[in-house]
Write a structure and sequence with these properties.
CATH topology of the largest domain: Hypothetical protein af1432
CATH architecture of the largest domain: Orthogonal Bundle
Strand order of the largest sheet: 10-9-8-7-11
Number of domains: 3
Shape: globular
Distance between the termini: 38 Å
Strand content: 5-15%
CATH class of the largest domain: Mainly Alpha
Oligomer: single chain
Length: 377
């Protein structure tokens, strides 16, 4: 037995997926068995802080065996998504990633490929990200907005060049304040300091200047970054423009909407239907805001719902109609967890959706790949 700290194999652990190996104490006695669900970043951090170990002989044997078995399409999709997250984290921190326009364009292509492969799974992962990672909010939000931009551009039937410009703008608009976003999401103090306020006011222009230094010459991209906090009413910032571009406004609406779906240290994530209603009313029913809402739908993949039957379910795909999403029941009508998720047809009166519920009211966390394979594989 070759015991090493679990931090050595941190790259082998995926949030929302079961452990592939046993976790042991320093004597080698088992603490957690293979298959234990790592449900959140907090769970993983707890294991690291506790100082647990794994047997590298066992890990190597499992890895060798698993390499012979191809990942399912869902597992491969999630692995690609997680690689994007870690790569962007390194990029914004300046560690381990090539600080170039070429790297950003590579990320743009990967995001577009994922959004073309499975729009529903992409939305699912946006909603069901680890809501405890407040300090990493800047990177997660950037990726979520970029992914949503790819979907919206397709719905708007924009050209591929315009789609790439919009996704690129989403990935880079907050470059100057990525760390600050994490700080603000984590802190309990509500009032901004003068320094924080100035950084926020200046970040659109600073991000555009940084992009020009990297060699980006796409004016649609650059203008969208510069204007993503401007409004048609002229009360935005930093230039108080009254005629911002359509691309900048799509980016602004998606930025606002997606931000509402993430928690902060001071509040829970807003329910998707409430977030949609707020976006629509706060922006005077702007057509482009309505497009964002329509893409996500009334019951977007990843949201938890209560059925007429009393069952708690999770939406896995949008349905043929806005009010009939595809769902997987996680509990029975009495609230007891099911052994396995069960697909329910919400077009049937007995299993119609009665309401959206928050994550804090749900205590069942199935493996996301397993959930999708069982429900729709």
């Amino acid at each position: 037995m070759h015991l090493v700290p679990i931090s050595v194999v941190i790259h082998e652990i995926c949030i929302g997926m079961p452990l592939r190996f046993n976790v042991r104490d320093r004597k080698g006695d088992m603490l957690l068995a293979e298959g234990f669900m790592v449900s959140s970043e907090r769970t993983l951090d707890g294991l690291i802080e506790r100082g647990v170990f794994v047997d590298m002989d066992e890990v190597d044997a499992i890895t060798e065996a698993s390499n012979a078995v191809p990942l399912t399409s869902t597992e491969a999709f999630i692995r690609s998504w997680e690689n994007l997250q870690s790569g962007l984290r390194d990029f914004f921190s300046g560690e381990g990633a090539d600080l170039s326009a070429g790297y950003i364009k590579q990320c743009i292509e990967q995001i577009i490929q994922l959004s073309d492969r499975s729009p529903d799974l992409l939305i699912f992962l946006i909603l069901r990200h680890d809501q405890t990672q407040h300090d990493n909010y800047g990177v997660l939000h950037t990726l979520h907005v970029a992914a949503a931009c790819s979907l919206i551009a397709l719905r708007l039937k924009w050209s591929e060049a315009e789609r790439q410009s919009l996704v690129g703008a989403a990935l880079t608009m907050n470059h100057a304040i990525s760390d600050l976003q994490g700080q603000l999401a984590s802190q309990r103090r509500q009032v901004l300091t003068d320094e924080q306020r100035e950084l926020i006011q200046l970040h659109p222009a600073e991000a555009a200047a940084w992009l020009r230094q990297l060699g980006v010459v796409d004016e649609n991209w650059l203008t969208a970054v510069e204007q993503h906090h401007e409004t048609p009413a002229g009360d935005g910032y930093p230039a108080h423009l009254g005629n911002p571009t359509a691309m900048s406004q799509v980016l602004r609406y998606i930025d606002i909407f997606v931000a509402k779906l993430s928690s902060r240290a001071t509040r829970l994530a807003e329910l998707p239907d409430l977030a949609a209603r707020q976006l629509f009313t706060e922006n005077r029913a702007a057509p482009l805001a309505a497009v964002v809402i329509k893409e996500f739908g009334i019951y977007p993949p990843g949201c938890y719902v209560k059925l007429v039957s009393g069952e708690i379910a999770i939406v896995t795909r949008r349905g043929a109609h806005a009010n009939t999403p595809m769902v997987a029941a996680l509990t029975n009508g009495d609230g007891y967890a099911l052994d396995e998720p069960v697909r329910r047809d919400t077009s049937k009166p007995a299993h119609a959706v009665s309401e959206i519920i928050g994550e804090n009211a749900v205590f069942v966390r199935p493996s996301w790949p397993r959930l999708h394979e069982m429900s729709f594989g």
